[in-house]
Amino acid sequence: MVETFPITTYFMLLLLFISFLVSTLGKPKLSTNCLPSKFQNPVYQNRKLQNLDIISKLRDDHDAIKLASSDYGNMVHEIPASVLYPTSINDIETLIKFAHNNSAPFTIAARGQGHSVRGQAMARNGVVVNMRSLKNHRNGFGITVSGTPSMGFFYADVGGEQLWIDVLNATLEHGLAPVSFTDYLYLTVGGTLSNAGISGQTFRYGPQISNVYEMDVITEKNRKLFYAVLGGLGQFGIIVRARIALEPAPKRVKWVRMLYNDFSVFTKDQESLISLNGRKQKNALNYLEGLLLMDKGTPENWRSTFFPLSDHSRIISLVTKYGIIYCIEVAKYYDDHTLNSVDKELQVLFEGLSFIPGFTFEKDISYIDFLNRVQSGEQKLQSQGLWDTPHPWLNLFVPKSHISDFNSIVFKDIVLKRNITTGVVLVYPMNRNKWDDRMSAVIPDEDVFYTIGFLHTIGFNDWETIDLQNKDILQSCYNAGIEVKQYLPNYKTMEDWKNHFGMKWRTFQERKAQFDPKMILSPGQRIFNNN
Ligand code: FAD
Q1: Are 256 and 346 in contact (CB under 8 A)?
Q2: 421 CA distance to ligand 1 centroid (A)?
Q3: Which of 131, 135, 194 is the pocket-test mutation for ligand 1 (most atoms within 8 Å of CB)?
Q4: Which of 60, 322, 349, 408 could be disulfide-bonded to 261 (CB atoms 3.0-4.6 Å)?
């Protein structure tokens, strides 16, 4: 179809596209004699067919713009000039090249599932690339599983636009699975690799970025940017393929929660459990998280239903008595070979733990149900109209040496006293040696650090109150000298970004200058385009 367009039509479309972008970019306006003539325009000269394709794949209709200017956070809305619905990797390549070579470069943001909460996947007046559009054009090669069974080495080549749930389902067909997940699986591979991808498996297997063998990345320049891109907040290129480490998948999971009323005992036990973390270490846990149980709501939260209904009242009594109850959540995978030993292994692991006697709870579920446990929570919230509300979420990494101060200053003095925190509050430790410092992701400089996630569920009118609390939490940490790092960071000034990256800032800047010198990519992070 594209090839049959007469050249003049093609050129008109191209000009229309350029003038549309120019008129909406908000950059210094180009005078018409600056518009590339068909002889000056490098895209026209070199890639006219692909470019013609791009024009037919750019949308600026209401639905496309609405989607691209919203995200899960529902608090930031940035209107792009256009949305690219790519049907090939070439389309993305062409767009980036076109923006780069244009005398008025425009910004470009890859949008995976748009599950950011602060507009990170948006591009005001630029072009948003709807990565999910690629999914239907992979000709069956969106997720391919390979390996050398004799060496026990397996991997999956997956498109950056693929959802982790689809990666999981496709690899399970081969009896394999990725080793490191996020709690929620309806996120894209490109989106989580641009951050880190953390969950209860991280203490042992590292974040998702530590489980990638290679990637194809489209960038303005240079292809040697593997480490830059991992945790790189979309700043250096668009991930179109990642080779993900796989291992044989277990069949079932023993899933256990135990309750504590003393924070120092809770963290001591968590730290003891994550000290067993060798990938091949048979007696180690496969997953460890932790959460707070507080006044608002039932002991259940949207992320999972777990506690037997018959135990709710005694758990609520405990929460009422102590204000905050701390809950360790662990999982041990098993299959036919380990069916008879898994309980014994857990028993040994739990010896010496100091949870409140009588307050341990266990479930035995399939591996897929365990990994996909958050989806039922999503369905519940959807049905209550609480999924598409604002999400002023705050995710932090806190060094182990300050976690006790964090409990006093934040959990006790702010969260408990104000009693406005709703939804999930996660608290669990991970090991620094499972991360790779060459990557762009930023973590505290201690061997063990905690992730804290305030994952609020609120109505439409409450987010500003919660946001104020978030600010107070950050300010209180700063005042007390607790050096927290934001995960899924959101800062307003260059100074804040410098502080966030610390020792890595120089490298991050140099990489930006090297791979995206015109600062085209992922403007919604507001690192280099923070006006
Ligand atoms: P988007 O929001 O679409 O994009 C995020 C950033 O990545 C943007 O800057 C975007 O430009 C860039 N980007 C997107 N695709 C690409 C690509 N292919 N190449 C380069 N850059 C790209 N995170 C965890 O680590 N663990 C969790 O357990 C977890 N649970 C979550 C649960 C829910 C319900 C939600 C809403 C979020 C959760 N997150 C979790 C956060 C999530 O990992 C990040 O928000 C992630 O960025 C979302 O992926 P996405 O596909 O929606 O990315």
Answers
A1: yes
A2: 23
A3: 194
A4: 322
Q: Strands of 294-434 (E only): list them.
A: 325-334, 360-366, 394-399, 424-431
> CA-CA distance, 208 to 449, in Å (whole number)?
17
DSSP codes, 132-179: GGGGGGSTT-SEEEEEEGGGTEEEEEEETT-BHHHHHHHHHTTTEEES
Give the pLDDT mean for 300-319.
89
Nearest CA to ligand 1 atom 37: 115
Residues whose CB falls within 8 Å of the CB of residue 193, separated by 6 or more in sequence, listed in order:
160, 208, 209, 212, 215, 229, 230, 231, 239, 242
Beta carbons within 10 angstroms of residue 166's beta carbon: 19
Atom of ligand 1 nearest to the CA of 234: 21
Cα 366 to averaged position of ligand 1 atoms, centre (Å): 26
User: 84-132, pLDDT tens digit by residue?
Assistant: 999 999 999 999 999 998 888 899 999 999 999 999 999 999 999 999 9
Q: What is the Cα–Cα distance from 214 to 223, expressed in whole angstroms?
A: 12
d(CA 502, CA 486): 12
Q: Going by CA atoms, what residue is nearest to atom 16 of ligand 1?
A: 190
Q: Does any ligand 1 atom lie closer than 6 A to the CB of residue 521? A: no
Catalytic (active-site) positions: 115, 183, 289
Q: Is the pTM of this model over 0.85?
A: yes
Residue with tokens 């090839």: 3
Report CA Rg, the chain. 24
Higher per-residue pLDDT: 161 or 295: 161
SS3 319: helix
414-441 residue pLDDT tens:
999 999 988 899 999 999 999 999 999 9
Mutate which of 67, 185, 192, 519 to test ligand 1's pocket (most atoms within 8 Å of Cβ)? 192
Helix (H) or strand (E) holding 189: helix 189-193
Q: Is 197 near ligand 1, meaning CB less than 6 Å away?
A: yes
Ligand 1 atom with minimal separation from the 487 CA = 25
Instruction: Name the token pair of 57.
Output: 């794949």
Token pair for 438: 């060459």
**Tokens standing for residue 190:** 């490109």
Q: What is the mean pLDDT of residues 510-530?
A: 94
Higher per-residue pLDDT: 461 or 131: 131
For the residues 232-247, what does the mean pLDDT come to?
98
Strand arrangement, sheet containing 485-486: 360-366, 252-260, 325-334, 287-293, 424-431, 448-455, 394-399, 485-486
111 lines ligand 1 (CB under 6 A): yes
∠ at Cα 191 (187, 194), nearest 5°?
A: 145
Q: Is the pLDDT of residue 24 over 90?
A: no
Q: What are the DSSP E strand ranges found in 28-167?
A: 58-59, 82-84, 108-111, 127-130, 143-148, 153-159
